[in-house]
Amino acid sequence: MHADDLLADPALAQAISDEASRLPSPPEGTREALRQQLENSTRPPSDAAWPAVLQAPREKKDTRYAEPATSHRAGVGPLVVFAKRSFRRLFQPFINEVMRRQVEFNEAILDSLALIYEQQQERARAEARWRAAMEERLAKLEGKPPRDQ
């Protein structure tokens, strides 16, 4: 069943609501424990900033544009710089078209890496919460007071 089914068929939504109202109420302690678990599992607001580990690759993702032309050659250096700049101005549209797919690929890879990084961080937070809950349950079973965190 999908949410669209509930929106499209009000009779189905009413039937589900009627069935849910017949369910017995859970004990207050269980309800409070579930509420606490849900509060602990809510996702914190995501940072708009990219992770530091992806910041440098993000700045280099667009391969169509090179650094300003320079030359280390004495004497003919200005001539070499002029030739490099002239070449770039003349062929920049062709360079852009050739590198367009590479830039799109780079952006897609960086987006994927950012998503993987975010999911890894979420998984680490969830594991830490789970570990704390397990330690608390173990302490209760052993009759020890729970550790302060």
Keywords:
mainly alpha; 2 domains; elongated; 149 residues
Summarize the structure in short.
This protein is mainly alpha-helical and about 150 residues long.
- Shape, principal axes of CA atoms: elongated
How far apart the termini lie comes to: 42 Å
Order of helices and strands: HHHHH
- Secondary structure tally: strands: 0
Sheet bearing the most strands, described? none
Q: How many whole angstroms does the radius of gyration measure?
A: 29 Å
Q: Into which percent range does the helicity of residues fall?
A: over 70%
Tell me the number of structural domains.
2
pLDDT < 50 stretches: none
Number of helices: 5
Percent of sequence in beta strands: under 5%
- The overall pLDDT, averaged over residues, is 82
From the helix content, strand content and strand pairing, which structural class follows? Answer: mainly alpha
Fold and architecture overview:
The protein is mostly helical and 149 residues long. The chain is elongated. Helix content is 72%, strand content 0%. The mean pLDDT is 82. The protein folds into two domains: 1-42; 49-149. The protein has helices at 3-8, 10-22, 28-41, 52-59, 77-142. It contains five helices and no strands.
